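Long-time lurker. I teach an intro course on protein structure, and each term I like to show students one example going from raw sequence to a predicted 3D structure in token notation. This year I'd like something fresh instead of my usual example. Would anyone be willing to generate the tokens for the chain below so I can use it in lecture? Attribution to the forum is fine with me.
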Amino acid sequence: MSIQTAERIRELREKNHLTQSQLAKKLYVTRSSINAWEMAVSVPSTEKISDLCFILHTTADYLLGTDCREMLPLDRYTNEEKEILYRLARYFDEN
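-- Reply from a regular --
Happy to contribute to a lecture. Here you go:
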């Protein structure tokens, strides 16, 4: 795993206001596993990469460093929730 991926796991975990222990609990792994991923000592399994993306609201491309754009997947939100997010994004774009 690249250092960039390790840094992105830590960055996204912190942006989502999760401790290593909280993220570990959501992923059914140990806190030391999360720490090892963030230090680029070990690599999450393919299944855990998918779970990480879901929990951290990102794409595998961003997490793995193949895309530099941070994304917010919207497929899990209702149409009403998506509209709120779009309005919020427009608000920030205008201000």
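Some talking points for your students: The radius of gyration is 14 Å. The helical segments are 3-15, 20-27, 31-38, 46-56, 60-64, 79-94.
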